[in-house]
Amino acid sequence: MIEHKVRVHPSKANLAREDQLAYKIAQVAVDEVAVEDDVTEMVINRVIDNASVAVASLTRAPIVSARAQALDHPVSANGTGASIFGINQKSSPEWAAWANGVAVRELDFHDTFLAADYSHPGDNIPAILAVAQHTGRSGADVVRGLATGYEIQVDLVKAICLHKHKIDHVAHLGPSAAAGIGTMLGLDAETIFQAVGQALHTTTATRQSRKGEISTWKAHAPAFAGKMAVEAVDRSMRGQTSPVPIYEGEDGVIAWILDGPNAEYTVPLPAPGEAKRALLDTYTKEHSAEYQAQAWIDLARKLHHEHPEVTDPANVESVLIRTSHHTHFVIGSGANDPQKYEPTASRETLDHSIPYIFTVALQDGSWHHGDSYAPERAGRPDTVELWHKVATEEDPEWTRRYHSLDISEKAFGGSVEIRLTDGGTITDEIAVADAHPLGARPFAREQYIAKFRSLAAGIIDDAEANRFLETAQRLPELAADELVGLNIQAAAGVVDLSVSPKGLF
């Protein structure tokens, strides 16, 4: 890897193309280095993973709305269109990326990477796949595009913290998806450079979408970034340019949105000829909840079986979770969001509440993507009583481990202390989720397939599930006309297009 120093430059410096981060990203995208076999295998896993969570979301309101919008935009010129999850109809690629992006993101249940900032790198897949289907690319082209998309997003997340300035993490997704599309289409560096800049410029927004009363926009935000990346590539291919330099300019992103005119970041990017392997640093979710809740669900399940007395609020005086800065201040009591303790809060709010998630997993000894968020489950009196006894605090050591670049000690958990009303105390800790590559039960192909079958049950027929899995596992060999096979048809009666909401289009 080459560590690139990135800082603000005055306009009079006329910073050269090759010295700009967006151009360096473009140079990575045009590098024709082969995708290594283990990366290809993980790409397949993540295509299956995305399909799992998309299928499970097909009847949820945000997906119904986004799908209706996409269907109101027919297949555009110069291509065959792109598939929309769950139905046998196509749309233009940017709108298919939108609809499928919302489906993938709605349940907060796909892959993640956490470092200086947060990300869900699987959000690259809907946009890149939609463009591939529309333009007649092969499965091998898709694999190459996704390797780039993951690489750029992970490298940006390792280096540049957006959250500190309350900027939503999808500001790293626009550039990564644009770069991935550029790789897949074989575009030149200048075109990709302009697309990266436009994608960043149009996808930088505040984190209010993940604060307080969290709305349905949480699922739409990454889909919007993917859609903007597709449109940015289209404009760049037509010769249109972007704000330059987008990162380093004196009125650019770093100077006025991030750490300011005196800031400097070090962004690692692969050297020419170096394989793109960042995808292997990412990890998926076993549970439908914010990633920093994954380990806590696993620990709560363990405590449920080892200490069943703690499921009764009458036996518990307090529960204190000591964890990283990000976990405490984003999904813990340090966020100072009263909604995180509100039984009538939205699902989007509850899946960003460690106090709620830990309580339900502790009482139930399990976690379900639907049942665990049901209003009747959140409002159960004994749950509310116990839930309000749970608090978090930052522990400097867990913060250090969260930010560690050493994969062997990088952690997303913490310790818990449960004080009992009889004077006793129960303590335990967990570093990573069970499904993490270093966890108790790491996910491999078998687990990805099992997750798919579990979430698809009752939504698609067994024959359709088998067909999709067979197609997905042949991804590197798929011809252009076979990419449509990565779409999934819902079983009869699951999707009712006649009840689609109406808007402007």
TrEMBL record:
Subunit structure: Monomer.
Positions of the MmgE/PrpD N-terminal domain: 20-265
Origin species: Nesterenkonia natronophila
Key words of the record: Lyase
Reaction(s) catalysed by this chain's protein: (2S,3S)-2-methylcitrate = 2-methyl-cis-aconitate + H2O
Ranges for domain MmgE/PrpD C-terminal: 287-475
One Pfam assignment: MmgE_PrpD_C
Name assigned to this protein: 2-methylcitrate dehydratase
InterPro entries in alphabetical order: MmgE/PrpD_sf, MmgE/PrpD_sf_1, MmgE/PrpD_sf_2, MmgE_PrpD, MmgE_PrpD_C, MmgE_PrpD_N
Entry's Gene Ontology molecular function annotations: 2-methylcitrate dehydratase activity
Enzyme class (EC, first level): lyase
EC number(s) from the headed UniProt entry: 4.2.1.79
Coiled-coil ranges from the UniProt annotation: none
Family classification: Belongs to the PrpD family.
